UniProtKB/TrEMBL annotation:
SUPFAM superfamilies: Acetyl-CoA synthetase-like
Protein name: Propionyl-CoA synthetase
Bilayer-spanning residue ranges: none
Pfam families reported for this sequence: ACAS_N, AMP-binding, AMP-binding_C
Amino acid sequence: MSYRDTYAAWQADPEGFWMEAARKIDWDQPPSRAFFDQGPAGEWFADGMVNACWNAVDRHVEAGRGDQLAIIHDSPITRSYRGVTYRELRDRVASLAGALRAKGVGKGDRVIIYMPMVPEALEAMLACSRIGAIHSVVFGGFAAHELAVRIDDCTAKAIIAASCGLEPGRVVHYKPLLDRAIEEAKHKPEFCVILQREQEVAKLTPGRDHDWHSFQYGVEPAECVPVEGNHPHYILYTSGTTGQPKGVVRHTAGHIVALNWTMKNIYGIDAGEVFWAASDVGWVVGHSYICYGPLLAGATTIVFEGKPVGTPDPGIFGRIIQNHRVKVFFTAPTAIRAVKREDPDCTYIRDYNLKSLKAVFLAGERADPATVQWVERHLDVPVIDHWWQTETGWPIAANPFGIETLPVKHGSPGVPMPGYDVQVLDEGGQPVPRGTLGAVTVKLPLPPGTLPTLWNAEERFRKAYLTTFPGYYETGDAGYIDEDGYLYIMARTDDVINVAGHRLSTGAMEEVLAAHPAVAECAVIGVTDSLKGQAPLGLLCLKKGTDMPNAQVVAEVVGMVRDRIGPVAAFRTACVVDRLPKTRSGKILRATMVKIADGEAFKTPATIDDPAILDEIAMALRAAGYPPSVA
Ligand code: COA
Ligand code: AMP
């Protein structure tokens, strides 16, 4: 079947389409139907009984794949390599799940996982799934405060962490961050399980912390516990407009049905093949395509602890593809730009034998045509940009490589996938003509595997996604659809920015800056960055009479963002201005400041309170080196 036929088949009979996809999953009790018109936006396979861990692990052992590698851990940072077969994975996960159960963790309990890129991170996720506990993985680049916010929001019963993570040239000390987070949180988890890595052995807190190995010693392994199709599988926090992150909920059955469908139809992966997503388990890409997707498909997944460059050189992607015979490779455009910057002719990667490689997928941020073309030129395989979000859990738009490779249009992440009726709307909620920019929305209901609500925040869910355009899900992205039905994603419509493929909230950073005693008012904007796509830039108005030198205030707020949000915010600079440009109703004109900082033409907004402020801002930005070409 072609893409067109597949999409038409879904349009004609969504129930039949998803029930057919559901037949590829092992059910303890099959669902009576696919869609349930319940909850704020509908639910999928709600009356089926199923276990995600069984489908990702045990069933492959039963089917004779026990000796096949499920996970390959390759760490150029520690210069180590380790494989875990499906049988080993089942036994390790059952053991950890049994130990969690013995400590009273059961169905519906929340468990936070704060771990770097090691196989044990996936094992912890799967152990929770096995007993119906709801995991919430927190990215290792977040600071203690962010961890504390998540502990409180999901009221975690337990935390599974590692003693440390490893960044090039730097050990990330997880344990002190964990201790600080628990101290700061109002809710106290009952216990922690700590994986001691040889690079750093952390001091355990007696009575609260357990060593990963001794914790499991002598316990009865746990079997898979069937859960309802609409049982929350995990919560993943993502950036919104404020400092309070949104807890995206993923229901179990829709998640595994949809991911399983994507592995074959979008990524073209069958059981026994090797799939590599070079992301992190702390992001949605890690949940869907390092952990669950490839394992549901019976493929081998790669857990990569390294960077595109510097570990040790820009050839590392090639080394991994060659040595592990990777068929499909998924990364972020930033990573490619990093390689291109250090090795413009791609000689390091091309030095390896890449004949296993059949496609490269890009996501996480807009893939600029120059980056896509560079990969096409050097690797000679389809390079597929695809667009999705933490909220959807799988691609909204892609080029369905597993069905057929449609002609690639540079600058476009492709066409809508079955399940998504993508509509571009104007401010009044009316569809715009083809080629016209507008808010990108998806007509409800969303397909299986997408978010049914936010954790403990149904009203926020409705307000953030369902209210602006009744009957549609608001993606928060702006873009257009061309005459051939290809989508183009151009910008966010909110204050979320994308730094090196990491989604960050400028609102959260502003909350931190505003807490500095010398800061009267502030704004954070995302300016264009040639490597990371965007970079945050702070604008600070100081309180009258402040005698602290500007440079000191800037240095202190940079330190505060690193300390409160984490190094991942990559907040490195701010400039002091007298006033911020605002509308007459007091809204800060961030988008206009972005244009000034990027050196782009802009129209003075009609609603501006005092147009003269824009000249002051331009002068202050020029003095700080923006736009870079003017500096
Ligand atoms: N744990 C702790 N710290 C982390 C971290 C983690 N898991 N990930 C990143 N950080 C830190 C980095 O060490 C860096 O710290 P520093 O300020 O001390 O240097 C900081 O967060 C910013 O990281 P990053 O924005 O990633 O910049 P970088 O200069 O370290 O690396 C790239 C640049 C392009 C190599 C890197 O961003 C990259 O590989 N990007 C691809 C991103 C990706 O795959 N995203 C997933 C979306 S699909
Ligand atoms: P996250 O939830 O972290 O996956 O970030 C999702 C957001 O990243 C989207 O809403 C977009 O703004 C942006 N994004 C992700 N992939 C793409 C893409 N292929 N093209 C353009 N923007 C993208």
